[in-house]
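Reviewer 2 asked us to include a model.

Predict the structure of this chain.
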Amino acid sequence: MPTFDASRMLSFDLETTSPNPLEARIVTSALVRIDGRDISASEQLADPGVDIPEAAQEIHGISTERARAEGRPHEDVLRDTVREIKKGWDEGLTLVVFNAPYDLTVLRQLTGDFTVTGAVFDPLVIDRARDPWRKGKRTLGDLAEYYGVRLDNAHEATSDAMAAARIAWKQVRSVWPELSQMDTGELMEYQAVQYYERALDTKAYFEKQGRDVSDFSVSWPMLG
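Predicted model (structure tokens):
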């Protein structure tokens, strides 16, 4: 199997109608393709077909009215997004997704049959796995600041996807270069195990607090 080549990435981000990936619909979908010196970005605005809750609008700044007036049909944006991701995997690109279980689960619940057929690199999972005791939050903005990379406009899908790609590049090229020596299968397994172990600890903590964990998922890169 090939190793993770940080010069060949497809970074992906969604802005949606809900923080719950099992009910979210797409508002914007962004893909940033990095293949050597060639970098291209595309972003699509979708009409999700439902009202965008005020809480979601406050995060990404897109109103229901704008999405209806300017957005493409939701199913078209979904279809194009999945097609480009699959194409990237077929061409050997690694899909970079910050907090992959959210975005990829959104695609699965919307399509009903989305599957992972290529390599995924999750900068958030890697950061938590390699530096578990560092204090502070680990939002995309926090990690961009920590790794010293640009985040031009937080919660704007293309900016978020570009920042995730920059963080991934920094992680494998400067901070933990040994990650680039792992083949993509080993890297996928490493992330899945690290996510699983952390999720089990979180689940146990929630149980001690008396919280309902019946729907708690410990799977990566999509929720079980």
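DSSP finds eight helices and six strands in the chain. The mean pLDDT is 96. We have added this to the supplementary material.
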